[in-house]
Amino acid sequence: MKITPDLCRAGRGLLNWSRADLAAAAGVSTPVVVKFEHGGNLQQATIDKIAAAFDAKGVKIENRPRIQTITRKTPPPSKQ
User: Fold this and answer.
1) Fold for domain 5-72?
2) How does DSSP assign 18-77, residue by residue?
3) Nearest of 72, 69, 68 to residue 58 by alpha carbon
4) Mean pLDDT, the chain, as a whole number?
5) 3-class DSSP state for residue 4?
6) pTM of the full predicted structure?
7) Are 57 and 71 in contact (CB under 8 A)?
8) Domain spans of the chain, in order of start
9) Residues 26-48: pLDDT tens digits?
């Protein structure tokens, strides 16, 4: 899955995650997430970890020419 900085921010928003939440889920540091979201270059393995963190939470990211979508595979948990 090809994830872009914009899709990364959208995915965090969908999950109501902070950058620190995403970093913890992906096993990377918060500055790495910040760098990625600001368009910095990361190793593909690191980008794959970020993408896998979204996938593990049921977020499907599609990035095709001229079409970018992000959807949640499962409904969000109810807040009680």
Assistant:
1) 434 Repressor (Amino-terminal Domain) (1.10.260)
2) -HHHHHHHHTS-HHHHHHHHTT----HHHHHHHHHHHHHTTEEEEEETTEEEEEESSPPP
3) 72
4) 86
5) coil
6) 0.79
7) no
8) 5-72
9) 999 999 999 999 999 999 999 99
